[in-house]
Amino acid sequence: MGFWQFLSTRHQQLLVDAYQHASAVFQCMVIATVIGVLIAVLTYRTEWAGNLAVTTTAAILTVPSLALIGLLIPILGLGVPPTVTALVLYGLLPIVRNAIVGLRGVDASLVEAARGIGMSRTARLLRVELPLAWPPILTGIRVSTQMLMGIAAIAAYASGPGLGNEIFTGIASLGSANALNEVLAGTLGIIVLALAFDAGYVLIGRLTIPRGIRG
Amino acid sequence: MTGIRPPGGRDDAPSAPGTPPGEPSAPGDDGARGGANRWDDGGAVAVADGDDGAAAGAGEDADAAAGRAAHRPARKVTWQKLVFTPAVLVVALVATYLWITHIHLDAIEHNSLDNGNVQLRLWQHIRLTAISTFWVLVIAIPLGIALTRRRLRPVAPAFTALANIGQATPAIGLLALLVIWLGIGARTAIIGIVAYAVLPVLSNTVAGLRAIDPTMVEAARGIGMSPPGVLTRVELPLAVPLILAGVRTALVLNVGTATLATFGGGGGLGDLITSGIVNQRMPVLILGSILTVALALFVDWLASIAEALLRPRGLGADT
Protein backbone atom coordinates (compact mmCIF):
# COMPACT_ATOMS: atom_id res chain seq x y z
CA MET A 1 0.00 0.00 0.00
CA GLY A 2 1.41 3.39 -0.90
CA PHE A 3 1.66 6.15 1.65
CA TRP A 4 -1.15 8.24 0.13
CA GLN A 5 -3.43 5.26 -0.07
CA PHE A 6 -2.58 4.48 3.56
CA LEU A 7 -3.45 8.02 4.56
CA SER A 8 -6.77 7.94 2.76
CA THR A 9 -7.86 4.57 4.19
CA ARG A 10 -6.69 5.35 7.73
CA HIS A 11 -7.39 9.05 7.84
CA GLN A 12 -10.07 8.70 10.49
CA GLN A 13 -7.82 6.90 12.96
CA LEU A 14 -4.95 9.25 12.15
CA LEU A 15 -7.07 12.34 12.72
CA VAL A 16 -8.24 10.98 16.07
CA ASP A 17 -4.63 10.30 17.07
CA ALA A 18 -3.49 13.71 15.88
CA TYR A 19 -6.32 15.40 17.73
CA GLN A 20 -5.52 13.51 20.93
CA HIS A 21 -1.82 14.29 20.57
CA ALA A 22 -2.47 17.99 20.09
CA SER A 23 -5.03 18.16 22.86
CA ALA A 24 -2.80 16.29 25.34
CA VAL A 25 0.12 18.59 24.61
CA PHE A 26 -2.09 21.67 24.69
CA GLN A 27 -3.75 20.81 28.00
CA CYS A 28 -0.44 19.89 29.62
CA MET A 29 1.02 23.16 28.38
CA VAL A 30 -1.82 25.10 29.98
CA ILE A 31 -1.20 23.33 33.31
CA ALA A 32 2.57 23.73 32.99
CA THR A 33 2.22 27.43 32.17
CA VAL A 34 -0.01 28.08 35.16
CA ILE A 35 2.25 26.15 37.54
CA GLY A 36 5.43 27.50 35.99
CA VAL A 37 4.39 31.16 36.13
CA LEU A 38 3.11 30.63 39.67
CA ILE A 39 6.47 29.17 40.74
CA ALA A 40 8.26 32.07 39.08
CA VAL A 41 6.03 34.69 40.72
CA LEU A 42 6.60 33.09 44.11
CA THR A 43 10.37 32.83 43.77
CA TYR A 44 11.72 35.58 41.52
CA ARG A 45 12.21 38.14 44.27
CA THR A 46 14.50 35.93 46.33
CA GLU A 47 17.85 35.05 44.81
CA TRP A 48 18.18 31.55 46.27
CA ALA A 49 14.55 30.56 45.80
CA GLY A 50 14.61 31.50 42.12
CA ASN A 51 17.84 29.61 41.60
CA LEU A 52 16.46 26.59 43.44
CA ALA A 53 13.37 26.59 41.23
CA VAL A 54 15.49 26.73 38.09
CA THR A 55 17.94 24.09 39.32
CA THR A 56 15.17 21.71 40.33
CA THR A 57 13.29 22.00 37.06
CA ALA A 58 16.59 21.64 35.17
CA ALA A 59 17.29 18.40 37.02
CA ILE A 60 13.88 17.07 35.98
CA LEU A 61 14.74 17.78 32.37
CA THR A 62 17.97 15.81 32.72
CA VAL A 63 15.97 12.68 33.45
CA PRO A 64 15.33 10.65 30.27
CA SER A 65 11.62 10.65 29.45
CA LEU A 66 11.25 6.86 29.22
CA ALA A 67 12.79 6.55 32.70
CA LEU A 68 10.55 9.21 34.22
CA ILE A 69 7.49 7.57 32.72
CA GLY A 70 8.81 4.25 34.01
CA LEU A 71 9.03 5.65 37.54
CA LEU A 72 5.53 7.10 37.31
CA ILE A 73 3.87 3.86 36.19
CA PRO A 74 4.15 2.06 39.58
CA ILE A 75 2.60 5.11 41.24
CA LEU A 76 -0.01 6.21 38.71
CA GLY A 77 -0.61 3.17 36.54
CA LEU A 78 -0.67 3.18 32.74
CA GLY A 79 -2.39 5.57 30.35
CA VAL A 80 -3.28 9.20 30.80
CA PRO A 81 -2.11 9.96 34.40
CA PRO A 82 1.63 9.22 33.90
CA THR A 83 1.53 10.92 30.49
CA VAL A 84 0.05 14.13 31.84
CA THR A 85 2.36 14.17 34.87
CA ALA A 86 5.48 13.60 32.77
CA LEU A 87 4.51 16.19 30.16
CA VAL A 88 3.74 18.83 32.76
CA LEU A 89 7.01 18.18 34.62
CA TYR A 90 9.07 18.40 31.43
CA GLY A 91 7.22 21.51 30.31
CA LEU A 92 8.08 23.45 33.47
CA LEU A 93 11.75 24.35 33.07
CA PRO A 94 11.63 26.68 30.05
CA ILE A 95 8.60 28.47 31.46
CA VAL A 96 9.91 28.82 35.02
CA ARG A 97 13.28 30.01 33.82
CA ASN A 98 12.05 32.46 31.25
CA ALA A 99 9.39 33.80 33.62
CA ILE A 100 11.98 34.39 36.35
CA VAL A 101 14.38 36.02 33.90
CA GLY A 102 11.54 38.09 32.47
CA LEU A 103 10.18 39.22 35.83
CA ARG A 104 13.65 40.06 37.12
CA GLY A 105 14.33 42.00 33.94
CA VAL A 106 11.41 44.38 34.42
CA ASP A 107 12.72 47.90 34.89
CA ALA A 108 12.55 48.67 38.62
CA SER A 109 11.65 52.30 37.96
CA LEU A 110 8.49 51.19 36.16
CA VAL A 111 7.40 49.13 39.15
CA GLU A 112 8.25 52.08 41.36
CA ALA A 113 6.15 54.37 39.18
CA ALA A 114 3.23 51.94 39.36
CA ARG A 115 3.55 52.00 43.12
CA GLY A 116 3.69 55.74 43.04
CA ILE A 117 0.33 56.01 41.33
CA GLY A 118 -1.14 53.84 44.05
CA MET A 119 -1.24 50.36 42.53
CA SER A 120 -1.41 47.48 44.98
CA ARG A 121 1.14 44.65 44.93
CA THR A 122 -1.26 42.40 43.00
CA ALA A 123 -2.13 45.11 40.51
CA ARG A 124 1.54 45.82 39.92
CA LEU A 125 2.18 42.16 39.28
CA LEU A 126 -0.80 41.62 37.02
CA ARG A 127 -0.85 44.91 35.15
CA VAL A 128 2.80 45.91 34.98
CA GLU A 129 5.26 43.12 35.67
CA LEU A 130 3.60 40.12 34.02
CA PRO A 131 2.67 41.96 30.79
CA LEU A 132 6.25 43.18 30.50
CA ALA A 133 7.61 39.69 31.18
CA TRP A 134 5.16 38.05 28.78
CA PRO A 135 7.38 37.90 25.64
CA PRO A 136 10.05 35.69 27.29
CA ILE A 137 7.35 33.61 28.96
CA LEU A 138 5.72 33.04 25.58
CA THR A 139 9.09 31.98 24.18
CA GLY A 140 9.38 29.49 27.02
CA ILE A 141 5.94 28.15 26.19
CA ARG A 142 6.93 27.67 22.55
CA VAL A 143 10.09 25.82 23.51
CA SER A 144 8.21 23.60 25.95
CA THR A 145 5.52 22.78 23.42
CA GLN A 146 8.00 21.59 20.82
CA MET A 147 9.70 19.41 23.39
CA LEU A 148 6.45 17.95 24.66
CA MET A 149 5.43 16.97 21.12
CA GLY A 150 8.30 14.49 21.02
CA ILE A 151 7.94 13.31 24.61
CA ALA A 152 4.22 12.69 24.12
CA ALA A 153 5.18 10.27 21.34
CA ILE A 154 7.26 8.25 23.81
CA ALA A 155 4.47 8.34 26.39
CA ALA A 156 2.38 6.29 23.96
CA TYR A 157 4.48 3.32 25.07
CA ALA A 158 2.88 3.62 28.50
CA SER A 159 -0.53 3.51 26.77
CA GLY A 160 -0.66 7.28 26.47
CA PRO A 161 -2.79 8.91 23.77
CA GLY A 162 -1.69 10.31 20.43
CA LEU A 163 0.38 9.79 17.31
CA GLY A 164 3.08 7.89 19.19
CA ASN A 165 0.72 4.92 18.98
CA GLU A 166 1.13 4.87 15.20
CA ILE A 167 4.90 4.82 15.60
CA PHE A 168 4.85 2.02 18.17
CA THR A 169 2.37 -0.03 16.12
CA GLY A 170 4.79 0.31 13.24
CA ILE A 171 7.74 -0.79 15.39
CA ALA A 172 5.79 -3.74 16.73
CA SER A 173 5.00 -4.95 13.22
CA LEU A 174 8.42 -4.42 11.65
CA GLY A 175 8.59 -6.02 8.24
CA SER A 176 4.86 -5.92 7.67
CA ALA A 177 3.51 -3.98 4.71
CA ASN A 178 2.25 -1.08 6.76
CA ALA A 179 5.10 -0.63 9.25
CA LEU A 180 6.75 2.12 7.23
CA ASN A 181 3.45 3.89 6.55
CA GLU A 182 2.48 3.87 10.20
CA VAL A 183 5.83 5.16 11.42
CA LEU A 184 5.94 7.77 8.67
CA ALA A 185 2.40 8.95 9.34
CA GLY A 186 3.07 9.24 13.08
CA THR A 187 6.38 11.05 12.67
CA LEU A 188 5.27 13.45 9.96
CA GLY A 189 2.05 14.09 11.85
CA ILE A 190 4.00 15.16 14.92
CA ILE A 191 6.27 17.42 12.86
CA VAL A 192 3.23 19.06 11.26
CA LEU A 193 1.56 19.53 14.64
CA ALA A 194 4.74 21.02 16.13
CA LEU A 195 5.10 23.50 13.28
CA ALA A 196 1.40 24.38 13.43
CA PHE A 197 1.60 25.06 17.17
CA ASP A 198 4.65 27.19 16.59
CA ALA A 199 2.84 29.27 13.99
CA GLY A 200 -0.04 29.59 16.45
CA TYR A 201 2.30 30.98 19.09
CA VAL A 202 3.65 33.58 16.68
CA LEU A 203 0.06 34.66 16.13
CA ILE A 204 -0.67 34.69 19.87
CA GLY A 205 2.43 36.82 20.32
CA ARG A 206 1.15 39.33 17.78
CA LEU A 207 -2.18 39.51 19.52
CA THR A 208 -1.16 39.50 23.17
CA ILE A 209 2.10 41.34 23.47
CA PRO A 210 1.35 44.92 24.53
CA ARG A 211 1.93 47.35 21.71
CA GLY A 212 4.29 49.49 23.73
CA ILE A 213 6.95 46.80 24.07
CA ARG A 214 6.58 45.24 20.64
CA GLY A 215 9.88 45.37 18.80
CA MET B 1 12.51 29.22 16.40
CA THR B 2 14.37 30.16 19.48
CA GLY B 3 18.06 30.03 20.09
CA ILE B 4 19.65 26.75 20.80
CA ARG B 5 17.42 23.99 21.82
CA PRO B 6 18.21 20.34 21.89
CA PRO B 7 14.78 18.79 21.92
CA GLY B 8 13.86 16.31 24.54
CA GLY B 9 17.03 16.78 26.45
CA ARG B 10 17.77 18.86 29.45
CA ASP B 11 18.28 22.05 27.59
CA ASP B 12 15.80 24.69 26.72
CA ALA B 13 16.21 27.65 24.58
CA PRO B 14 17.38 30.57 26.47
CA SER B 15 15.07 33.36 25.66
CA ALA B 16 16.97 36.51 25.66
CA PRO B 17 14.54 38.74 27.46
CA GLY B 18 15.59 41.63 25.26
CA THR B 19 14.48 39.84 22.14
CA PRO B 20 11.90 41.74 20.17
CA PRO B 21 8.56 40.09 20.88
CA GLY B 22 7.04 37.94 18.21
CA GLU B 23 10.38 37.70 16.55
CA PRO B 24 12.09 34.43 17.32
CA SER B 25 15.73 35.02 18.01
CA ALA B 26 17.80 33.12 15.54
CA PRO B 27 20.72 31.27 17.06
CA GLY B 28 22.66 34.45 17.03
CA ASP B 29 24.09 36.74 19.60
CA ASP B 30 21.17 36.83 21.99
CA GLY B 31 20.70 33.12 21.93
CA ALA B 32 24.35 32.53 22.46
CA ARG B 33 24.68 34.78 25.44
CA GLY B 34 21.51 33.39 26.92
CA GLY B 35 23.01 29.99 26.31
CA ALA B 36 26.06 30.79 28.32
CA ASN B 37 23.93 32.04 31.19
CA ARG B 38 21.79 29.03 30.96
CA TRP B 39 24.66 26.71 31.61
CA ASP B 40 25.80 28.77 34.48
CA ASP B 41 22.62 28.65 36.43
CA GLY B 42 21.76 25.16 35.29
CA GLY B 43 25.24 24.09 36.23
CA ALA B 44 24.49 24.19 39.90
CA VAL B 45 24.14 20.87 41.55
CA ALA B 46 21.28 18.86 40.29
CA VAL B 47 18.55 17.97 42.69
CA ALA B 48 18.46 14.26 42.59
CA ASP B 49 15.56 11.95 42.30
CA GLY B 50 13.60 12.08 45.47
CA ASP B 51 10.72 10.64 43.52
CA ASP B 52 12.05 7.16 43.10
CA GLY B 53 9.71 5.62 45.61
CA ALA B 54 12.06 2.79 46.36
CA ALA B 55 14.88 4.91 47.61
CA ALA B 56 12.76 6.87 50.01
CA GLY B 57 14.49 8.86 52.67
CA ALA B 58 17.01 10.36 50.32
CA GLY B 59 14.36 12.80 49.19
CA GLU B 60 14.06 15.24 52.05
CA ASP B 61 17.78 15.51 52.60
CA ALA B 62 18.23 16.13 48.93
CA ASP B 63 15.86 19.05 48.87
CA ALA B 64 17.33 20.68 51.92
CA ALA B 65 20.86 20.31 50.68
CA ALA B 66 19.94 21.61 47.26
CA GLY B 67 18.59 24.70 48.91
CA ARG B 68 21.93 25.28 50.47
CA ALA B 69 23.87 24.55 47.32
CA ALA B 70 21.73 26.36 44.79
CA HIS B 71 22.59 29.93 45.66
CA ARG B 72 26.29 29.38 45.38
CA PRO B 73 27.82 30.71 42.20
CA ALA B 74 27.83 27.72 39.91
CA ARG B 75 30.86 28.79 37.97
CA LYS B 76 33.53 27.69 40.33
CA VAL B 77 34.06 24.10 41.33
CA THR B 78 32.97 24.28 44.92
CA TRP B 79 33.28 21.24 47.12
CA GLN B 80 29.50 21.14 47.50
CA LYS B 81 29.13 20.88 43.78
CA LEU B 82 31.77 18.18 43.68
CA VAL B 83 30.22 16.09 46.41
CA PHE B 84 26.49 16.68 46.38
CA THR B 85 25.27 14.90 43.26
CA PRO B 86 27.49 11.81 43.68
CA ALA B 87 26.50 11.57 47.33
CA VAL B 88 22.79 11.62 46.52
CA LEU B 89 23.30 9.13 43.71
CA VAL B 90 25.24 6.75 45.96
CA VAL B 91 22.54 6.90 48.61
CA ALA B 92 19.81 6.30 46.03
CA LEU B 93 21.68 3.43 44.39
CA VAL B 94 22.55 1.73 47.69
CA ALA B 95 18.92 2.02 48.80
CA THR B 96 17.77 0.56 45.49
CA TYR B 97 20.28 -2.27 45.79
CA LEU B 98 19.16 -3.14 49.31
CA TRP B 99 15.54 -3.02 48.22
CA ILE B 100 15.98 -5.18 45.13
CA THR B 101 18.03 -7.82 47.01
CA HIS B 102 15.54 -8.03 49.86
CA ILE B 103 12.22 -8.35 48.06
CA HIS B 104 10.93 -11.60 46.69
CA LEU B 105 11.47 -11.86 42.94
CA ASP B 106 9.49 -14.28 40.79
CA ALA B 107 10.88 -16.30 37.89
CA ILE B 108 10.32 -13.63 35.25
CA GLU B 109 11.98 -11.00 37.39
CA HIS B 110 14.94 -13.28 38.08
CA ASN B 111 15.19 -13.89 34.37
CA SER B 112 15.40 -10.15 33.68
CA LEU B 113 17.81 -9.30 36.46
CA ASP B 114 20.15 -12.29 36.90
CA ASN B 115 23.16 -13.55 34.99
CA GLY B 116 24.70 -10.15 34.67
CA ASN B 117 21.83 -8.83 32.55
CA VAL B 118 21.66 -5.57 34.47
CA GLN B 119 25.40 -5.00 34.15
CA LEU B 120 25.20 -5.85 30.45
CA ARG B 121 22.41 -3.34 29.82
CA LEU B 122 24.18 -0.65 31.82
CA TRP B 123 27.38 -1.24 29.90
CA GLN B 124 25.53 -1.18 26.57
CA HIS B 125 23.94 2.10 27.58
CA ILE B 126 27.28 3.68 28.48
CA ARG B 127 28.75 2.43 25.21
CA LEU B 128 25.86 3.79 23.15
CA THR B 129 26.16 7.16 24.87
CA ALA B 130 29.94 7.39 24.56
CA ILE B 131 30.14 6.31 20.92
CA SER B 132 27.27 8.51 19.79
CA THR B 133 28.60 11.54 21.69
CA PHE B 134 31.98 11.04 20.01
CA TRP B 135 30.39 11.08 16.56
CA VAL B 136 28.14 14.02 17.38
CA LEU B 137 31.17 16.10 18.33
CA VAL B 138 33.26 14.94 15.38
CA ILE B 139 30.45 15.93 13.00
CA ALA B 140 28.93 19.00 14.63
CA ILE B 141 31.92 21.04 15.76
CA PRO B 142 33.87 21.10 12.46
CA LEU B 143 30.62 21.68 10.60
CA GLY B 144 29.79 24.55 12.94
CA ILE B 145 33.20 26.09 12.33
CA ALA B 146 32.77 25.69 8.57
CA LEU B 147 29.35 27.32 8.63
CA THR B 148 30.68 30.45 10.29
CA ARG B 149 33.45 30.97 7.72
CA ARG B 150 32.74 33.79 5.35
CA ARG B 151 32.51 31.65 2.26
CA LEU B 152 29.81 29.38 3.66
CA ARG B 153 27.76 32.01 5.43
CA PRO B 154 25.02 32.09 2.76
CA VAL B 155 24.32 28.40 3.49
CA ALA B 156 23.75 29.00 7.19
CA PRO B 157 20.06 30.05 7.00
CA ALA B 158 19.27 26.75 5.28
CA PHE B 159 20.81 24.93 8.21
CA THR B 160 18.81 26.99 10.66
CA ALA B 161 15.63 25.99 8.85
CA LEU B 162 16.75 22.37 8.88
CA ALA B 163 17.49 22.63 12.58
CA ASN B 164 13.98 23.90 13.20
CA ILE B 165 12.41 20.94 11.46
CA GLY B 166 14.88 18.67 13.24
CA GLN B 167 13.70 20.01 16.58
CA ALA B 168 10.14 19.21 15.69
CA THR B 169 11.01 15.61 14.81
CA PRO B 170 10.27 13.11 17.58
CA ALA B 171 13.28 10.98 18.50
CA ILE B 172 11.28 7.78 18.52
CA GLY B 173 9.91 8.41 15.02
CA LEU B 174 13.38 9.12 13.66
CA LEU B 175 14.72 5.95 15.23
CA ALA B 176 11.82 3.86 13.95
CA LEU B 177 12.35 5.13 10.41
CA LEU B 178 16.05 4.28 10.61
CA VAL B 179 15.25 0.80 11.89
CA ILE B 180 12.96 0.20 8.93
CA TRP B 181 15.58 1.54 6.56
CA LEU B 182 18.76 -0.01 8.03
CA GLY B 183 17.48 -2.96 10.07
CA ILE B 184 17.76 -3.46 13.82
CA GLY B 185 20.95 -3.41 15.85
CA ALA B 186 23.27 -1.21 17.84
CA ARG B 187 24.62 0.46 14.69
CA THR B 188 21.19 1.76 13.70
CA ALA B 189 20.58 2.96 17.24
CA ILE B 190 23.86 4.88 17.25
CA ILE B 191 23.06 6.50 13.89
CA GLY B 192 19.67 7.54 15.24
CA ILE B 193 21.10 8.96 18.46
CA VAL B 194 23.76 10.88 16.51
CA ALA B 195 21.26 12.22 13.98
CA TYR B 196 19.07 13.45 16.79
CA ALA B 197 21.84 15.27 18.68
CA VAL B 198 23.88 16.74 15.82
CA LEU B 199 21.62 19.71 15.10
CA PRO B 200 21.42 21.11 18.65
CA VAL B 201 25.17 20.84 19.15
CA LEU B 202 25.72 22.36 15.71
CA SER B 203 23.57 25.39 16.52
CA ASN B 204 25.39 25.70 19.85
CA THR B 205 28.74 25.83 18.07
CA VAL B 206 27.54 28.29 15.44
CA ALA B 207 25.99 30.51 18.11
CA GLY B 208 29.19 30.35 20.17
CA LEU B 209 31.38 31.40 17.27
CA ARG B 210 28.98 34.14 16.19
CA ALA B 211 28.77 35.60 19.67
CA ILE B 212 32.46 36.42 19.63
CA ASP B 213 33.09 40.12 19.71
CA PRO B 214 33.90 41.05 16.09
CA THR B 215 36.39 43.65 17.29
CA MET B 216 38.54 40.85 18.72
CA VAL B 217 38.65 39.08 15.38
CA GLU B 218 39.33 42.42 13.73
CA ALA B 219 42.16 43.13 16.15
CA ALA B 220 43.68 39.69 15.54
CA ARG B 221 43.57 40.34 11.80
CA GLY B 222 45.01 43.77 12.37
CA ILE B 223 48.13 42.42 14.05
CA GLY B 224 48.65 40.26 10.97
CA MET B 225 47.27 36.85 11.98
CA SER B 226 46.39 34.48 9.17
CA PRO B 227 42.77 33.19 8.98
CA PRO B 228 43.74 29.79 10.50
CA GLY B 229 45.62 31.68 13.20
CA VAL B 230 42.58 33.80 13.99
CA LEU B 231 40.45 30.67 14.17
CA THR B 232 42.71 28.56 16.35
CA ARG B 233 44.19 31.24 18.59
CA VAL B 234 41.30 33.66 19.02
CA GLU B 235 37.92 32.34 17.92
CA LEU B 236 38.08 28.76 19.18
CA PRO B 237 39.47 29.59 22.63
CA LEU B 238 36.76 32.20 23.03
CA ALA B 239 34.10 29.73 21.93
CA VAL B 240 35.29 26.99 24.31
CA PRO B 241 32.60 27.62 26.96
CA LEU B 242 29.81 27.22 24.43
CA ILE B 243 31.41 24.24 22.77
CA LEU B 244 31.74 22.59 26.19
CA ALA B 245 28.11 23.40 26.81
CA GLY B 246 27.44 21.62 23.53
CA VAL B 247 29.33 18.56 24.74
CA ARG B 248 27.24 18.52 27.87
CA THR B 249 24.05 18.91 25.86
CA ALA B 250 25.06 16.05 23.59
CA LEU B 251 25.93 13.76 26.50
CA VAL B 252 22.70 14.35 28.41
CA LEU B 253 20.60 14.17 25.25
CA ASN B 254 22.30 10.93 24.22
CA VAL B 255 21.81 9.23 27.58
CA GLY B 256 18.12 9.93 27.09
CA THR B 257 17.87 8.90 23.45
CA ALA B 258 19.85 5.74 24.19
CA THR B 259 16.93 4.50 26.29
CA LEU B 260 15.01 4.32 23.00
CA ALA B 261 17.68 2.11 21.43
CA THR B 262 15.84 -0.90 22.79
CA PHE B 263 13.08 -0.29 20.22
CA GLY B 264 15.69 -0.80 17.52
CA GLY B 265 17.28 -3.86 19.10
CA GLY B 266 20.19 -1.78 20.35
CA GLY B 267 20.03 -2.87 24.00
CA GLY B 268 20.74 -0.46 26.82
CA LEU B 269 18.83 0.28 29.99
CA GLY B 270 15.67 0.91 27.96
CA ASP B 271 15.53 -2.90 27.71
CA LEU B 272 14.88 -3.20 31.44
CA ILE B 273 12.25 -0.45 31.35
CA THR B 274 10.35 -1.88 28.40
CA SER B 275 10.48 -5.48 29.62
CA GLY B 276 9.26 -4.24 32.99
CA ILE B 277 6.31 -2.53 31.30
CA VAL B 278 5.52 -5.39 28.92
CA ASN B 279 5.76 -8.13 31.57
CA GLN B 280 4.20 -5.92 34.23
CA ARG B 281 7.09 -6.52 36.58
CA MET B 282 7.51 -3.34 38.60
CA PRO B 283 10.89 -4.20 40.21
CA VAL B 284 12.45 -4.57 36.74
CA LEU B 285 10.82 -1.34 35.56
CA ILE B 286 11.88 0.59 38.66
CA LEU B 287 15.45 -0.71 38.63
CA GLY B 288 15.84 0.16 34.95
CA SER B 289 14.40 3.62 35.47
CA ILE B 290 16.49 4.40 38.54
CA LEU B 291 19.70 3.27 36.84
CA THR B 292 18.87 5.44 33.81
CA VAL B 293 18.10 8.48 35.96
CA ALA B 294 21.28 7.95 37.99
CA LEU B 295 23.36 7.60 34.84
CA ALA B 296 21.85 10.76 33.33
CA LEU B 297 22.45 12.84 36.46
CA PHE B 298 25.95 11.41 36.86
CA VAL B 299 26.88 12.19 33.26
CA ASP B 300 25.50 15.70 33.63
CA TRP B 301 27.52 16.16 36.82
CA LEU B 302 30.66 14.87 35.15
CA ALA B 303 30.16 17.24 32.23
CA SER B 304 29.53 20.20 34.52
CA ILE B 305 32.81 19.52 36.32
CA ALA B 306 34.62 19.24 32.99
CA GLU B 307 32.99 22.47 31.89
CA ALA B 308 34.25 24.32 34.95
CA LEU B 309 37.76 22.90 34.73
CA LEU B 310 38.35 23.28 31.00
CA ARG B 311 37.11 26.86 30.66
CA PRO B 312 40.01 29.05 29.52
CA ARG B 313 41.34 31.03 32.42
CA GLY B 314 41.01 34.46 30.88
CA LEU B 315 37.30 33.98 30.45
CA GLY B 316 36.46 34.24 34.09
CA ALA B 317 33.51 36.16 35.31
CA ASP B 318 31.08 37.00 32.60
CA THR B 319 31.46 34.75 29.62
From TrEMBL, chain A:
The transmembrane segments are 24-44, 51-75, 183-204
The protein's UniProt keywords, in alphabetical order, are: Membrane, Transmembrane, Transmembrane helix, Transport
User: What is its membrane topology?
Assistant: Multi-pass membrane protein
Q: Gene3D superfamilies from the xrefs?
A: MetI-like (1.10.3720.10)
Q: What is the annotated localization of this protein?
A: Cell membrane; Membrane
Instruction: Tell me the Gene Ontology biological-process terms attached to this UniProt entry.
Output: glycine betaine transport; transmembrane transport
User: Which InterPro entries does this chain map to?
Assistant: ABC_transp_perm/SBD, MetI-like, MetI-like_sf
Name of a matching Pfam family: BPD_transp_1
ABC transmembrane type-1 domain mapped to chain residues: 18-201
GO cellular component entries: plasma membrane
**Family as reported in the entry's similarity comment:** Belongs to the binding-protein-dependent transport system permease family.
Please give the name of this protein: Osmoprotectant transport system permease protein
From TrEMBL, chain B:
Question: Which keywords does this Swiss-Prot/TrEMBL entry list?
Answer: Membrane, Transmembrane, Transmembrane helix, Transport
Q: Which family does it belong to?
A: Belongs to the binding-protein-dependent transport system permease family.
Q: Which GO terms describe its cellular component?
A: plasma membrane
List the transmembrane segments.
Answer: 82-105, 125-147, 159-184, 190-212, 242-264, 284-303
**Which PROSITE patterns does the annotation name?**
ABC_TM1 (PS50928)
Q: Positions of the region Disordered?
A: 1-59
Membrane topology of the entry: Multi-pass membrane protein
The subcellular localization recorded is: Cell membrane; Membrane
Instruction: Please provide the Gene Ontology terms (biological process) for this protein.
Output: glycine betaine transport; transmembrane transport
Provide the ABC transmembrane type-1 domain boundaries. 122-303
Q: What is this protein called?
A: Osmoprotectant transport system permease protein
Q: For bias kind Low complexity, which ranges apply?
A: 42-59
Main location (coarse class): membrane
Q: Which domain of life is it from?
A: Bacteria
